[in-house]
Amino acid sequence: MTGTGTDYSVQGGIAVIRVDNPPVNALGSHVRLSLNELMRRAEADAAVRGVILTGTGKVFVAGADLKQIDAPRSGPSINDLLAFVEGMTKPVVAALQGLALGGGYEIAMGCHARIAAAGVRVGLPETTLGLIPGAGGTQRLPRLVGAAAALDLIASGRQVAADEALRLGMVDAVTSGDLLAEARGLLDRVPRPLPRLRDRTPQGPAGDLPSARAAFEARAVALGQGALPAIRAAIAAVRDSFDPDFDAAIAREHAAFHTLRTGPEARAMIHAFLAERASAHVAGVSRATPRLSVAQVSIIGAGTMGGGIGITCANAGYTVTMVETSAPALEAAKTRIEGVYIGQVSRDRLTPEAAAAALARFRWVQGLEAGVAGADLVIEAVFEDMGLKKEVFAQLDRLAPPSAILASNTSYQNIDELAAVTQRPDRVVGMHYFSPANVMKLLEIVRGAATSPETLATVLDLARKTGKIPVVVGVCYGFVGNRMLWLRTVQTQRLLLEGCSPRQVDTVLTDFGFRMGPCQMGDMAGLDVAWRLRKARGERMEPVDTLADAGRWGQKTGKGWYLYPDGARDGVDDPALAPVVAEVAARLGVTQRAVSAAEIEERLLYPLINEGTRILEEGIVERAGDIDVIYLHGYGWPRHRGGPMQFADARGLPAIVATLDRMAEAQGDDTLRPSALLRRLAATGGRLID
Ligand code: 3H9
To answer: 30, 126, 246, 269: least CB-packed within 10 angstroms?
Structure first.
């Protein structure tokens, strides 16, 4: 590779321009400037009769450089490049040797013809980042595949395999032979005058668009609020492709792209994309870190959580031993797990063969000794009780092969204390799955003080192989997600006491973009769960425990914060609830009042954010983005709001600090005071996200 991110060579009268900008050949400014220059060089070189544009590695070009998306631009743009290519006297063929996404596929559309290696995928995923294609994609794709199909591809952002791309007309040829040789052949066949998409009119009657538009707007709503501005802009831009003034439509597309790029949704969604990738980088772990080989996983405790973990492992090809203390418990687990597979087959999520193959990977064993013999990884998923967990860990250490990793699925407990009861603290780690474990993507991987890089690397690999999004966190009570969520729980209860209805509280969060609010979540999970734990500890939380006392446990008892007549899943408001809560408030001396939606939002989110900054301060996570990944994938934080840390930056740290101070005063609760980190960043104009 040269410093330009490109390579240029002339072979037999054909200039081959190769993008070579690892890791994904993104269109950084150096690549953009160099492509502009190299096309001009090829056009000017009398010895060149045609140009092949190709890439290096698995990716042709992954599109705009998202890490530079905010950098000021100078020099010719990709639109300038494509306008130049379309005006060239020599044919240019895009030879797609790997994925062509976003700006990458837009460049290919600006060439005179396109050929793809078999196995290549192409697509315009910009809407998934809150953007629209901004280098002519909304104008050229309708001319290639028709307006309705173009809108479908742009609004879904889906990647299209080579065969389908050929069928749709997105590429002119697909080859499993020598791509460059085939591209040369295609160059010779390009008709004269050179075909330019700008000269075509979009295929398909313009009249089709209104109905397509309605369908896409409906889809946009279903996708969530984050996608809406981008999808609406995409609909408008594709409609614009019927304007015969191509250059004017391109200019409008560019303006719309720019508006979205600098808007809140795209900023948040691009951050989410990059944070997900950044969280894969873990201090002390690299590709060179040795891995322990894992084929057999033993799961101790075959309850709902253990069963879910077993399913994810079996689906990924591991042999899974489910371990229980009694035969009936094992039998119940077996029935439950088989039920999950039957459900997946009946919903067409899995073929009967795949379900049978996964089930065949399970072994059902009673007792620890037989259960962990031969295990490479043991995941403990017993009742959340430290005494019990320590006992289990001490036994596991005696019984499991000395090389085996011992993981705990605890949601709260101290991994170092568990490691201390074993002779292999380097091989002890936390694997905090979220319920239901076979569905939820997030996995908090808890690194203890002694956890070795090999152990971490091994469980990280397993997590990815099982389709999880792992985030490494340090030891603290509740780790990252639950520790922060507790602050929201406290505020929810205080808001309810102060006179907010469950609906008011929930609506603020669903308007924010969450699928559910805290009361709806509580009703779903069961209000009795935490109530029982508190009772055992002699603690109380109001008003929720008054509801639990009265048997209002949520959906399972037909009433909780809401009523669920006839087993309904969506709760209806209960007029009898407010007086019950008002009585508790009066007993506790809490004055009820009208609380604004803005205050509810601040109280539900700012203390949680504040706790996130303490977690960051304590080094429990490596970077603020890791907290966001945890909230995006484990707690339903809407993607177009970036995650709690990105949201805090966007909202403005000084405003959050001032509000937290006010809240601490008003509630007489100094734990609500802003963290030192938050205060410092707010005072110095700093940000949580680098
Ligand atoms: C666009 O094109 C706008 C245009 O319409 C208009 C302007 C021309 N930029 O995902 P991975 C990094 S919008 C910068 O783990 P994989 C990533 O952060 C763009 N960096 O690999 C990571 O870095 P690190 C439309 C990027 O093999 C490394 O590459 N395009 C970009 O699993 C590896 O990433 C898209 O939305 C980027 N565009 O998957 C495509 N992409 O090593 C976005 C990745 O520091 N990209 N990185 O952690 C992808 O979907 C996947 O990365 C891809 C490879 C499928 C390409």
So the answer is: 30
- DSSP character for 363? E
Q: Please report how the helices 644-651 and 597-617 are oriented relative to each other, as an axis angle in degrees rounded to 10.
A: 120
**How many CB atoms lie under 10 A from the CB of residue 546?**
17
Q: What sections of 453-563 are H helices per DSSP?
A: 453-465, 481-497, 502-512, 518-525, 528-537, 544-549
Question: From the CB of 237, is ligand 1 less than 6 Å away?
Answer: no
As assigned by CATH, the class of the 6-262 domain is: alpha beta
* Cβ of residue 133 lying under 6 Å from some atom of ligand 1: yes
> Which of 21, 262, 277 to mutate for ligand 1's pocket (most ligand atoms within 8 Å of CB)?
277
Better-predicted residue by pLDDT, 479 or 151: 479
Query: Which ligand 1 atom is nearest residue 69's CA?
Result: 9
Distance CA 157, CA 122 (A): 10
**Which residues are designated catalytic?**
106, 126
Give the Å distance between the CA of 157 and the centre of ligand 1: 14
| Domains 6-262 and 296-480 are alike in CATH topology | no
CATH architecture of structural domain 499-588: Orthogonal Bundle (1.10)
CA of 62 to the centre of ligand 1 (A): 5
Whole-number Å distance between alpha carbons of 629 and 387: 32
- Domain map (residue ranges) of the chain: 6-262, 296-480, 499-588
Distance 113 CA to ligand 1 centre (A): 24
Q: Could you tell me the fold of the domain covering 296-480?
A: Rossmann fold (3.40.50)
Cα–Cα distance, 304 to 333 (Å, whole number): 8
Going by their DSSP bridges, the two strands 428-433 and 405-408 should be labelled as parallel
Could you give the count of Cα atoms lying within 13 Å of 419 in the half-sphere of its Cβ? 20
Q: Which pLDDT tens digit goes with each residue over 67-118?
A: 998 888 889 999 999 999 999 999 999 999 999 999 999 999 999 999 999 9
Regarding predicted confidence, which is higher, 156 or 479? 479
Nearest Cα residue to 430 out of 454, 401, 459, 453: 459
Helical H runs in 303-367?
Answer: 304-315, 327-346, 352-360
**Ligand 1 pocket, residue 149 CB under 6 Å:** no
ipTM field: 0.99
CB 213 within 8 A of CB 152: no
- Tens digit of each residue's pLDDT (9 = 90 or more) over 52-81: 999 999 999 999 999 998 888 889 999 999
**132 touches ligand 1 (CB under 6 Å):** no
Nearest CA to ligand 1 atom 16: 24
Neighbour count for residue 184 (Cβ, 10 Å): 20
Q: Which SS3 state, helix, strand or coil, does residue 154 take?
A: helix
User: Nearest CA to 443 among 463, 415, 414, 419?
Assistant: 463
Q: Ligand 1 centroid vs 26 CA: distance in angstroms?
A: 7
Instruction: Decide: 126 in ligand 1 pocket, CB within 6 A.
Output: yes
For residue 135, which atom of ligand 1 is closest to its CA? 6
pLDDT of 554: 96
